[in-house]
Structure formats: structure tokens, C-alpha cells
Amino acid sequence: MENRWDVAIVGGGVVGAAAAYHLSRFDLKIGLLEKRNDVCFGVSKANSGIVHGGFHYDAATTVKGRLERRGNLLFDAWSRDLGFPFVRCGILVVAFAPEQLPTVEALYKQGVANGIPGIELCDAARIRELEPKLDPSACGGLHAPGGGVVEPYAMVFAMIEAARRNGLDLRTNCEVVSARREGDDWRIEAADGRTFRARYAINAAGLYADDVSRAFGAESFRIRPRKGEEYLLDRESAARPRRVIFPVPSPHTKGVLVIPTAGGTTMIGPTSLLIDDKEDAATTAENRRRIFELAGRMVSGITEKDLIASFSGSRPVMDGCEDFTIERSAKAPHLLHAAGILSPGLTAAPAIAEEIAGLLRQDGLVLAEKPSYDLPEKVPPLREMPPEEAAERHADDPAWTNIICRCEMVSEAEIRRAIRRGHATLDGVKLATRAGMGRCQGGFCTLKIMKLIAEECGIPLEEVVKNDPGSRIAVGRLGEKA
């Protein structure tokens, strides 16, 4: 028998997850269809994790500017309710040559016009007071104290967990290939033959929003990836700044940044290159050298000796449009597009969810708030737990102090908890707990995590995967002592 929902959301990135979390507060049956093995395995996991300050875009003339401002203001409440890491550390845009100062002043005026609180135009002395690690060539800049950093995967997982506790039906490994109208419903078919019915549908498929639109017989547009390579430095790096450091932007990129991540490491990047291959996740030695050179001109202490990981992610760019497209389809009834959500999509996500709800209401969907809402239990990670709480948890379950990942201080209990919540792959455990994200990048803990996944899922060790089906780590028969 087919599932029938009020709303089907296609895509389990930050936009789809935010929509699911927000809509689950209403008396609705909601389903979310994600093509990957877990949510947040696409664009959102390879995100810079910045909550932008609201000055890069005109809030009066662009959708992204308007929703960035609103989304930023919602982060405190969403982080408090859901428990994901968020730090309002502030953002600096730094001029390293006098000729860049007029652009900084224009950004400042735009921030003031957007109503951004506390934004400040800084001279050389003030900008170096705010960040002593800046290169001596820094001659001024902009300070947006409301900007910050977030762990994007922790945010997505928290939103999905909350939505599931309140009725969301999550279906993973579920690639939408076609949809047609049958009476008042969409009949949606997945690649594996599963079918689902929904009165309304939301296209939040990121890089594949163009494919999903075609599957629904809706608008024809093209999404291209704008690829960005990022480089992660060890949490002990001397380069870690107090605030997010931006250079003065160009027309198509905000430039190479130095980011004190919410997880305690330092990130530098990204590059910005429009490509055709949506699956291209490669990094290159040439771009690594360029990123380190550019970051080193901004902040002292940048060295490749601290490099622990490199990765790339792609922003979904709609051909001919640098703004968000959040609108009801003109061709397909009761279909809503949230497409071309590039930067600052993470910042805007809570406001995008509100926007989606408003458009659904305009399209006739009744949104009646539930009398109560069940928020997930907020358990701090062991590395942040007071000793007394860690001792109490150990008394109840010694697995809480059995350290599996030494670099990030992640316990067996935390890993088992993540697996039981559906994150039953190496990447899923990594994003849910940070196990494997530290200096050794899983060199000491990978096999231990694999054994825990195998035990919890009741599968042979050889069937444990890195992320999606087919990405096995172990090949062949393993002995008892493997």
C-alpha cells in the first residue's frame, strides 16, 4: 500500500531538513525522500559552516539578502531548541590595500540599509584590535558581530531528528525519477520502484533540483555546480582566529576565508569554479598551494604542517540566476521549488522554511499548529561534559567513558547512539559525532567504529560502508582478529 502524505519533500540537505522541521510543527503528514544513504550527504555536508552577517546582498532587491537577514536572527532560537553547535563569533571583512576600502564602505552601507545590528566600519587600529593575527598590511575593514559559525551536519541531523519525533516519514536511498498527477495527488516513483502519494511536493534537491523539476513535468532549468575546495587545519593550529575572516569580495566570490569552525578546527578556502560534473569532489595540489598562499597573506600562522583534511563541495547555481528561486511552479500544480540555493543558503535556511510554509498556505494547504511539540533530548558530547555528568553517565553505562576516537574524545556510547538514530555508515557516524574528524582522520578508530556498526546493525563487517551502497571498506573474508 502506498504512503500518502500531505507534503512530500524531495532532498535531505539543509533546506529540505529545515522545511521538514518547520512543517512538522503543524498537523500534517510529511514525507522526506533522500537519494543518498543518509541526510546531509550532498551539498550541505561540504559547507563552510558560516552564518553570514547580512551585508553582502541587498535585502530590498534580492531574495537571498532578505532571507539571509531573517535566517541569521532565527539561529539562536533554533540552536537552543535543537542543541546543535552555533557560535556568534562575528565576521570581519578586511582590506589589505587602500584601494579596497571603498568596497568595504559600500558593504557597510548595505549592512546599515539592511538593518543589521552592531555593524561597524573599522580603521587599521580597530581591525587589528579585533583580530591580532591579521597580516600587518590590514588597513581597515568591516565588523559584523552578528555573524558566526555552525556545524552544518549537526544542524541537519538535529532538524531531521526533531521532525521524525513529530511524525516525519524519512525515506533514504530513495531517488525520485518520475511523478504524475492522479486526482488530487502526486504519485511519486523512486528508482527502486517504490511509490508515494502526496497532495503537495517541495523540490529541495540541491544540485539535482533540475532533474527533479523535469521528473514532475515542471519548469526546465539547469543547475550547475560551483565547486569550492576547503582545507581543514588541526585544532591546535596557531592560525585559528577569533572571528571569521573575509577578504574584500569580487563580483562572483566572497574570496578565500579563514574560519574558526564551530568544531574547534580552522578551515581555509574555498575556491570558486563553475564546472559541469555534479559528482566531481576532487581536490588538487595546485589549488591547495593557492589557498594556503592567499590565506597566509591574511592571517599569521597558516602552515601546511597543520593540514589534516581536504574536501570539496559544490554550490547549486541556476543558469542565468545568482539569486534563490523559491516559488510555486507555474506548470505543475501544488509543486514548490526551492532551487539554486547557493551561499548564503545555510544562513537563510530557517527563513527559507518559513517562506516555504507561507507559499504552501497561499496554495491552499491548511497549516494548523500542533498543541505540543516534542524536542529531542540535548546531550552534550563527552568532550564538553562536566566531570560529574561524565561520572554519572559512566555509572549507568561504562560505554560513555570508553573512548573510541581519541583525537575528538568520542565515546562508544555516543557512536552507538548515532547508529541507533539511523547514521549507520562511517560518514554518518563521523558527521553525527565527529569520530574520525581529528588529527589522525580515523587512523586509529575506523576499525573500531566499523565493528560497532556491524554489531548494532547485525551485519558482517564486510558489509559496513563508508557512505552509500557499494562503498565498502573491507573486501573479502576477515578473520576473527581483524
Describe the 3D structure.
- The protein is an alpha+beta fold and 482 residues long.
- It folds into 3 domains: 3-45 and 152-222 and 321-362, FAD/NAD(P)-binding domain (3-Layer(bba) Sandwich); 86-149 and 224-314, D-Amino Acid Oxidase, Chain A, domain 2 (2-Layer Sandwich); 382-463, Orthogonal Bundle (Arc Repressor Mutant, subunit A).
- The chain is 29% helix and 23% strand.
- Strands 1, 2, 9, 10, 11, 12, 19 and 20 form an 8-stranded mixed sheet that branches.
- The longest helix is centred in the N-terminal third of the chain and has 20 residues, at 63-82.
- The mean pLDDT is 95.
What's the N-to-C terminus distance? 43 Å
General shape:
globular
Strand content: 15-25%
CATH class of the largest domain: Alpha Beta
User: What Rg, in angstroms, do the CA atoms define?
Assistant: 23 Å
Low-confidence stretches: none
CATH architecture of the largest domain: 3-Layer(bba) Sandwich
Helix count from the secondary structure assignment: 12
The total count of strands amounts to 22
User: Which fold name fills CATH's third level, the topology of the largest domain?
Assistant: FAD/NAD(P)-binding domain
Helical amount among residues, as a percent range?
Answer: 25-40%
CATH homology superfamily of the largest domain: FAD/NAD(P)-binding domain
The largest β sheet comes out as: 8 strands, mixed
**Count of discrete structural domains:** 3
Class inferred from helices and paired strands:
alpha+beta
Mean pLDDT: 95
